[in-house]
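pasting for ref
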Amino acid sequence: PQDIVRQWMARAAIFSVPSTTLPSGEAEGFGLAFAEAQAMELPVASFAVGGVPEVIAHGETGLLAPDGDTAALARNLLTLLRDPDLCRRYGVAGRARVEERFDLTRQTAKLETLYRRALEAVR
């Protein structure tokens, strides 16, 4: 349940879900959990796959390693664990990124504008 997830995230110092590309080529879509973590001001460490880089700005809101590069992921985790100030900066920047780019009301308005333009072009 959402409230349990929120409780666990509130206890965390870093959010790390190292999604990888499957042999079939499928990868993480948008990565809602990453946006939720950033909304709670958690810095993120993961792999740069699928839609994850759309949510996480490497070097601004978290650290992304190349897909499957576990050594780079470990270095990124250590970098964050050793630097609480960096974690705070990434956390604050992550929340701002989510509020700016993924606000439901704002995104819905943009989508509705696209629909209106498409309808006007057909008329």
